[in-house]
Amino acid sequence: MRHNYKNLKIWQMGLEIANTISDILVDFPKHERYDLASQISRSSVSMPSNIAEGSAKSNNSFSNYLDIALGSSFELSTQLLIAHHRNYINKKTLTTLEEKIEEFQRMTMGFQNGLN
What we know:
Layout: H1 9-25, H2 36-54, H3 59-85, H4 91-115
Helix pairs in contact: 1-2, 1-4, 2-3, 3-4
């Protein structure tokens, strides 16, 4: 069964997280542009991108793409903790993003369980 990824709540949420991250990265120090900021950007973009790519596959393959999207979300959480430690983002921003990412993870795992 194929899915229209644009109608998937998990894709919409992943896109929202990626867009929020993009807005936050504007304020990162210039010296981080090719280091932490770049990694954070790639992780966040990977979440909805893998959902979109996987949606064209069989349910079994789609599940693998969802695993990659989930992995990217956990990677992103870690990178945001590092950004907070380096004082690039404040505690409120960190907490808000962590809550959104955790919701994305719960919903994606739930969706994935429904595929199997």
